[in-house]
Write a structure and sequence with these properties.
216 residues, Rossmann fold, alpha/beta, 56% helix, 5-stranded parallel beta sheet, 9 helices, 2 domains
């Protein structure tokens, strides 16, 4: 849990005040998510799909990064890309989450600081044309900013799944989807990031299947 004093007042706070009963709160929360889903820019999501399709066509790697709940989504997204899109007769996507090597992550954080935990891995792995996909509600995490800055300087494509107003990472993203909420509304943003993961990877699995069936 994030310390309560660091979280600005959000629509979720107001929802609780109006509907403190758990069932009514559930209805209100789901209605809020429905409105956020309706407001998503479908063209932004399509641009994420296109970036990942291009990485597949060129046999480039996709690196996924995030912190906290977004780290879990990065791991989930990597599994959905690497395994969930597999189709007989097609090579798989080359996707890896950079949050999953705990020994490396903690060694780097301990020795050189947490801000460097992703860029240090990219220094040894990244090649031009690769994709770095960062997942963050605030868009202002220093370790993601460093990673995106490095990626752009070395010919990689940066893709952001963002929240709130997009933060600094929106400026550093070649492609971005922003779930626009009040600052501090982490839960709904993280919910929709996982929805976007499933939209993108379900589409890509079927795209690959169509490529195989058509002989391309």
């Amino acid at each position: 849990m994030r310390p309560r004093h660091t979280i600005p007042r959000t629509a979720i706070d107001e929802l609780f005040e109006r509907q403190a009963d758990p069932a009514a709160f559930c209805d209100g929360y789901l209605a809020h998510l429905t409105a956020l889903i309706a407001a998503l820019d479908r063209r932004e999501i399509a641009s994420v799909v296109a970036a990942l399709q291009e990485a597949y066509r060129t046999d480039n790697q996709i690196f996924l990064i995030g912190n906290g709940g977004s780290a879990a989504t990065a791991s989930h997204f990597a599994v959905d890309l690497g395994k969930g899109t597999r189709v007989p007769g097609a090579r798989p996507f080359r996707a890896i989450s950079l949050v999953d090597n705990q020994a490396l992550l903690t060694a780097q954080a301990n020795d050189e600081g947490y801000d460097s935990v992703f860029v240090a891995q990219l220094e040894s792995l990244l090649r031009p044309g690769d994709v770095v996909l960062g997942i963050t509600a605030s868009g202002n995490s220093p370790n993601l900013i460093e990673a995106f800055s490095f990626a752009r300087a070395h010919g990689a494509v940066t893709v952001g799944l963002l929240g709130f107003d997009g933060g600094r990472l929106r400026e550093l993203s070649d492609v971005a989807v922003t779930v626009r909420t009040a600052k501090g509304e982490y839960g709904p943003v993280e919910d929709l990031h996982l929805v976007i993961d499933h939209i993108v990877t379900n589409y890509l699995a079927r795209w690959l299947a169509s490529e195989v069936s058509s002989g391309r």
